[in-house]
Amino acid sequence: MVKKKETTSRWKIIMINLLIALLLAAVAIVILIFGLRSYTQHGVEIEVPDITQLYLEEAKITLEAEGLHIEVIDSTYSTKVPLGTIVEQTPAAGSKVKNGRTIYVIQNAQMRRPVVLPELRDMSLRQAQATLATIGLQIDSIVYEPSTYRDIVLDIRKDDMPLDAGTRLEEGCAIYLIVGKGKGTEDVTIPNVVGRPLDEARSWLLSHALTVGLVQYDIPPTEENKLNYIVYSQEPASGTIVVEGTSVNLKLSMDIEKTVTADNEQDEEEFF
Question: What is the distance between the alpha carbons of residues 240 and 242, in angstroms, rounded to a whole number?
Answer without folding.
Answer: 6
